Fold these 2 entries.
Entry 1:
Amino acid sequence: MHNIEHLGIAVENLEEANLLFSKLLGNKHYKIEEVEGEKVATSFFRIGETKVELLEATAESSVIHKFIQKRGKGIHHIAFGVDDIYEEMKRLEEEGFELLNEIPKKGADNKLVCFLHPKTTGGVLVEICQDK
Ligand code: ZN
């Protein structure tokens, strides 16, 4: 893993959150993207070398909807950048981490992603991601 690629933040209303984070960070989001498979709408802000990803549920079956119901809005995941996601998934599995998907999924921002179960990562939902 070579960097913190982004922090994922669960929000209830993407439009309101975009305004809030524009004020907070002093710059505007550079993209909005819906990830059909995950039932989320996302927006991205650059902040130095890393990014902030805001995530809003687009359906009640979305993991973001469930997360907010259970824990409230706020920090949802931390994403680490990797060069070879297949290699890294293999390594993590061998180290005893539970992968939430067996093959990389298509994520927002032109990435291949894989999530690790928080019960094996000290309570933190971890994403690894690679540029496609
Ligand atoms: Zn993410």
Entry 2:
Amino acid sequence: MTAAIIDGKVVGAKVRAAVAVDVAAWVAAGNRQPGLATVLVGDDPASAVYVGSKRTACVEAGIADLHQHLPGDSSHETVAALIRQLAADPAVSGILLQLPVPKQMNGGGLTALIPAEKDVDGLTPVSAGLLALGMPGLRPCTPSGVIELLDHHGVQIEGAEAVVVGRSDLVGKPVAQMLLQRSATVTIAHSRTRDLEGVCSRADILVAAVGVPRLLGGAHVKAGAVVIDVGINRTDTGLVGDVDFEAVSALASLITPVPGGVGPVTIAMLLRNTLTAAELQAK
Ligand code: NAP
């Protein structure tokens, strides 16, 4: 079997176009234009690139760009005061604190100041709790992107054996929760898992969110499995995922490439969350 490629750029563009249409309809109905406040502290080049892409995507979708940039030597309290101010500002639908923040501040504590209805990254303890309880709320963007890719390709999640490798709060745990909510039988593997090959090769849907280049190879994948590679690893030969694409695409039925798989859908889900946040606040 040779896997069909899941094209994240196509799916991301589809979601972005749909959000732009929905934002225009929202504004045409007399509602306030949704606005996203990205908060960047310091001048880390990678973070600046990520924030730049998010801001451009916002403007293209008709969402107001309410970016905030603070110097890298700001105090924890200065950033906390800004987040509180954005939380109280009705023009701000969503707040995204770009992580990591400089060492003198506590990123988790700052993130927790974002009210759940403006938490477009879906990473606050309240949003994580709502997800765990299956209650409505804003979901983290990368895990939502994984589900969007599966749905776009009509992959049956209900009843499927899903294995998620990685248990981070950012990706592994929330994607496992979302698959569970869609009635998959979910296993979460991590660095202490015994027999990773055996666990992974049970999967109908295998999600890799590890951060180890090409960790998962042919021995980890059942013939016909759907493989979603969240990993982004910089190597001497360029960006690679957590999956050995060449070996695994000979076995899988569907597979995401890196780059061009999950990444482009992540930003699209941020736009979707910003509109959802605006709708939540209007209620
Ligand atoms: P993370 O916080 O470092 O978590 C990595 C997870 O992988 C941990 O749970 C760790 O287990 C597990 N792990 C590490 N080595 C392992 C091994 N040899 N076998 C099995 N499990 C192992 O990383 P993350 O934030 O979840 O990110 C994961 C990857 O996704 C990274 O490459 C990141 O760049 C990428 N990413 C991509 C996007 C996107 O938009 N495409 C978004 C976010 C992240 P323990 O818990 O036991 O340590």
